[in-house]
Amino acid sequence: MASLRLAALLLAPVSALLLRDRGRNLSDPNPPIANLRMEPESKRLTWDLHGNVSAIQCFEDASFDRRATNNSFCQLFVLPKCKRSNYTVRVTLMDGETYSTWIEYPVQGDPGAAAEDLGCEVHDQDFLTCSWAVGRHAPSDVQYYFYLEDSNTSAMWACPRYTVNAQGTHTQCRFDNVSAFSKEQHRFVVRGASRRSPIPCVELTHFLSDIEKLRAPNINATCNESLALLEWDMSSHFHKIFDYELEIQQGADPPFLQEVQEDQSFPLANPRSFTVRIRALYSPDLVGQWSARRRFVCDQEANARFPVWLSSSLMALGTLITVGTAVFLCRRYSVLKTLFPPIPHLKDPLGGTWENEKMFPWEPGRPPQEECPVAEVQVLREP
User: Fold this and answer.
1) Which CA distances in Å does 218 have to 119, 205, 266?
2) Is 7 helix (H, G, I), strand (E, B) or coil?
3) For the whole model, what pTM was predicted?
């Protein structure tokens, strides 16, 4: 019997224990404190004090125990928006007698009307999507509204894009740019509205990095008969360094797993034809999606076709280079000839050279055009 009584005391709410042990009745016309209330803006549990008291303590359910500031209020640091909690104030009077009173905050309607199964994830690197279900006891005109709040700055963003069900009720919200949000903890809140009855809200608290669903890396390969180099890229707004897991199957061999730590490439020897898929790993609790399987062929037949393609490309490239060089040289020769015209030479009647040059005949006895003296030379014909 004693053990049952002890268990009952342990399981009982704090407020119930305090009220049972109080020395004064709640219906006392002159209670030491009155008008117990919550001030959400300042996050204070406050009251009106009457008379002198020795001490005042505040309790939140069974986990919060704090002395009041100047016997006037208890300062709270995290105030729930949706989860209803019991806040109890215990007063110790000057003669040692105690008095307790309590309130519930926030005051809401039927919990069954609130949104159910709220869940959020960051996916495809840039997007945040949150989904929920309509409450089982929700009235037919219920509508839900989603808000994202920065727990550090209290900055709040309303949902920019909803998805609705057949009745037109919001059941999903999507943000398209998570890089606009900080890496601090965030609160995800779904509030309800109805003309028939108040609708409780529901909330979650997470770091965005903890709910990211890592996208699959994009993998490619370059290869020949002896070696294939697999390379991929991976990015995230919240994580920087990843490990990777590759599943590779060469020909008809069984597939095998290959782990790669903090690198974005892997050499595969004697690749032949193979298929591969890859996923990123940040921690045991944060494992990314598998990519689609990709097939690469690195056998002799594939390599035999490669030189034909390469030769055709090189021939076309060589032709373009030759034509371009010829055009360039022709234009260059024409420009040089214009800038530096050829110097006239004497006609050589014996050698027959300078066929394409402009020659000036020299007549004996005629003054030369040059200012320098010119001697006459008689050409003798050999017998």
Assistant:
1) 27, 32, 14
2) helix
3) 0.57
